[in-house]
Amino acid sequence: MGQEESVPIKKENVAPVLHSNCRKTIENLALQGRALPINRGQYKFGHELGSGAFGTVYSARRVQDNKAVAIKVVSLVTLNNKEGLMLTNSILTEIEMSKSLSQVSNHVVRMHDFDFHRKTGLAFLIMELGERDLEKLLKERLRLTSTERKEVWRQCVDIAMTLHDNKIVHLDIKPQNLVIFPGNKIKLVDLGIAQRAYKHRVGSNGTWLYSAPEVTNAARGQMMLNTSKADVWSWGAVLYRMTYSEPPKYTRPCFQPPKHLAISKDNNLTDVLRHTLVSDPVERADPPWLAQHPYTTS
Fold first, then answer.
1. Of 128, 143, 169, which residue sits at a domain end?
2. Which of 142 and 50 is assigned the larger pLDDT?
3. How far apart (Å, rounded) are the C-alpha atoms in residues 167 and 100?
4. Band of pLDDT at residue 204, cut at 50, 70 and 90
5. I want to staple 62 with a disulfide (CB 3.0 to 4.6 A). Which of 40, 67, 140, 147 is the partner?
6. Distance CA 52, CA 57 (A)
């Protein structure tokens, strides 16, 4: 790629690259093993860690001091300006919220730097590198011990309270967005679609089954009020995944285990699932309820 022109990520810097002619260049761009200038540093890309609807995350090292980092790469080359501005807003939201929340909680991933290469239309978000996400651990281990599960859960509730206290709704909490760091510390990532609480969102968001039914099933154009109860379903879904090896269904009663498995013998755990995996958000528990529950405190 050479020395690409770097500029801060701002809406006015994105418009010149929002056309489909560059799409082939972006799709064919190989980053693994490449060294790129990103803002104030030079970074050598390693292997791909994961990808989603809005970008791909790579392991990397900062050349000058060999510091290990994770770099999220998002292509802002789109078919229309509206889509490009939506992606830009998502990036700016992730940067803003990650920086503010990581200052008040050590369970939110820290953002180190960010940059935008005008020529390629690529945005780069540089953050601290974890060991693996919770989903990868669960696939390897199949099921956690009760002690391990409760250790993860208590950290999840800590994150839930941080979001609640700061009036932020994540809208896409799932095992893939919970990264494990040394010492089994859990940190939340991917705040790109997060929104302020008590404001309205339009249409569906999130990830099927891990996001609340009212989040994923919202009709196009439907206005919904953001509250932390949307995330509470997701926290319950994560606990369900750690307990029964798969996410819950939207079929009532949602807290019941898969047909081939017996219900958990831990009555406190089952009570949490009973109060979080509730289709009606009015009937659903809130984060303070989770923080005070015996399953969390015992």
1. 128
2. 50
3. 12
4. confident
5. 67
6. 9
The reply to whether 171 and 292 lie within a common domain is yes
* Encoded amino acid at 138, one letter: L
Mean local confidence (pLDDT), 70-84? 83
Using H for helix, E for strand and C for coil, what is the string for 216-244?
A: HCCCCCCEEECCCHHHHHHHHHHHHHHHH
Residue 72 labelled as part of a binding site: yes
Confidence (pLDDT) at 7: 53
**Which amino acid belongs to residue 181?**
F
Q: 41: left (phi > 0), else alpha (psi -120 to 50), else beta?
A: beta
Split into its structural domains, the chain has a count of 2
Asked if residue 57 and residue 11 are part of one domain, the reply reads: yes
Structure tokens at 258: 């898969």
- Phi-psi label, residue 250: left if phi above 0, alpha if psi -120 to 50, beta otherwise: alpha
Q: Would you tell me how many other CB atoms lie within 10 Å of the CB of residue 136?
A: 16
Q: CA geometry: angle at 279 spanning 274 and 285, to 5°?
A: 50
Q: Taking the complete model, does pTM exceed 0.85, yes or no? A: yes
Start-to-end Cα distance in the chain? 54
Give the span between the Cα atoms of 244 and 260, in whole angstroms.
Answer: 10
CATH of the domain at 247: 1.10.510.10
The first and second tokens of residue 132, run together, are 């693996």
Give the tens place of pLDDT for each residue, 248-290.
999 999 999 999 999 999 999 999 999 999 999 999 999 999 9
Beta bridge pairs of residue 43: 36, 62
Cβ atoms within 10 Å, residue 226: 21
Q: Could you tell me if 158 and 278 lie in one domain? A: yes
- Which pLDDT score, from 0 to 100, does residue 23 have? 40
**How big is the CA angle at 81 (ends 94 and 48), to the nearest 5 degrees?**
45
